[in-house]
Design brief:
The structure is a homodimer. By secondary structure, chain A is an all-alpha fold. The first copy, chain A, has one domain (3-200): Tetracycline Repressor, domain 2 (Orthogonal Bundle), CATH 1.10.357.10. Chain A is built from ten helices and no strands. In chain A, helix 5 (91-108) runs antiparallel to helix 8. The termini of chain A are far apart. The relative contact order of chain A is 0.11. Chain A binds chain B through residues 33-37, 118-120, 123, 130, 132-133, 154, 156, 159-160, 163-164, 166-172, 175, 178, 180-181, 188, 191-192, 195, 199, 204, 206-207, and chain B through 33-34, 36-37, 118-120, 123, 130, 132-133, 154, 156, 159-160, 163-164, 166-172, 175, 178, 180-181, 188, 191-192, 195, 199, 204, 206-207. The structure holds a DNA duplex.
Chain lengths: 207, 207
DNA sequence: GTCTATACGCCGATAGAC
DNA sequence: GTCTATCGGCGTATAGAC
């Protein structure tokens, strides 16, 4: 049991085995430098491995590493969203749960949020769904749709409402990730949540 | 005079000479496939040039092409923003002018907006300012600051207000660029402007 | 100013010993 | 299962003819 469980929480099965070391090193480097600026040599070094060939024992090729990361992150995101939806029926509370998750991840697992919000996965995973066509995203749209039916959310195009809502949330988190907003994400969470929610809520308090 | 002046409007000096052909080809390819998935061979072919060596007659290296694009786009953006600021004193009208420009560019020069909103320029232009530290961005913050002083805009952190405002605007444009929103940008402009403006305006009409 | 031809290096990927 | 050693190719960049 290592004590470096910082960024791994969401990164699937937490095992201190070599494949996971490789994944964590790759996630960090991809987030920091981008996929194409990261060589297998970089990953090997960061994972305390002497030979790049060792990587091929665990992954088919470089893309496969990125793919595994992509799948881990979205699988975990899916599970988290399902849990959030089970806890409450109200769209407002479900959305609040997702926002809470995103802000926590930004502070606790910034590499994962960098992967989600900043990297253009379609550039190195062309066969994979772009984030906006991912099951996780579809679930968010569903939440907003049912919020509209329930009268919680204004009657506008659900896709557009989702675009506005996460435009605010994600842009704020991007600004935190790149240091343009210099405090922890949690500092901005309350007012950012209010701004985003009031934007789509039916009975907005206006300020 | 060629008739393909589609995407060139903002791309600086419009001349049908070879350097400009190269820049236009590169812009298109970078926007479509990303910088690292685009080889000099790709650019040469798209620019109707037989030899990659010709490119080196006009640009120092591959990065220099991206740098020239970066400078052209931001120089033109700067000029446009200055013009907009000169036309009116009111922050609301200045912001509306910028929003109008962004939506028009998304419909008329999508490659430029892709470059601005989607590409991670810091991955291939590490020495250049990230977009958020660009003079153009600083001017937007200034507009919002003076809007706060004038009582037009609510008294919140100008950086945060800018983040919210362009979170909505830019995310909407990103959704148009990738086809997730399937109509022209101009279709979404009125309600998106209202959503973004009411979010930061002091006397919001609420809906 | 554009071409042909070619050099060079990096990095992804493989073979095979231990 | 990790290592050493090496290959092959792609893509950047250069030399030099026309």
């Amino acid at each position: 049991m290592d004590q470096d469980i910082d960024n791994t929480q969401i990164a699937a099965d937490i095992q201190a085995d070599t494949p996971n070391e490789i994944l964590l090193a790759a996630l960090k480097l991809f987030a920091e430098k981008g996929y194409f600026n990261t060589s297998l040599g970089d990953i090997a070094k960061a994972a305390d491995i002497k030979a790049t060939s060792t990587i091929y024992q665990h992954f088919g090729d470089k893309q496969a590493i990125a793919l595994k990361l992509y799948e881990s992150i979205f699988d975990n995101l899916n599970v988290s969203i399902d849990e959030i939806r089970r806890k409450s029926q109200k769209s407002s509370e479900q959305l609040h749960g997702i926002v809470d998750l995103f802000f926590k991840l930004t502070d606790d697992a910034p590499y994962i949020m960098q992967f989600l919000l900043v990297l253009n996965t379609s550039e190195f995973l062309p066969k994979q769904n772009p984030i906006l066509e991912t099951p996780a995203f579809a679930k968010v749209v569903k939440i907003i749709q049912s919020g509209i039916r329930a009268g919680e959310i204004r009657n506008i195009d659900p896709i557009l409402a989702t675009t506005y809502f996460f435009g605010i949330i994600n842009n704020t988190l991007r600004m935190v990730l790149n240091g343009e907003l210099d405090k922890k994400a949690e500092v901005y969470q309350p007012q950012t949540w209010l701004a985003a929610w009031n934007l789509i809520a039916k009975k907005s308090t206006c300020f």
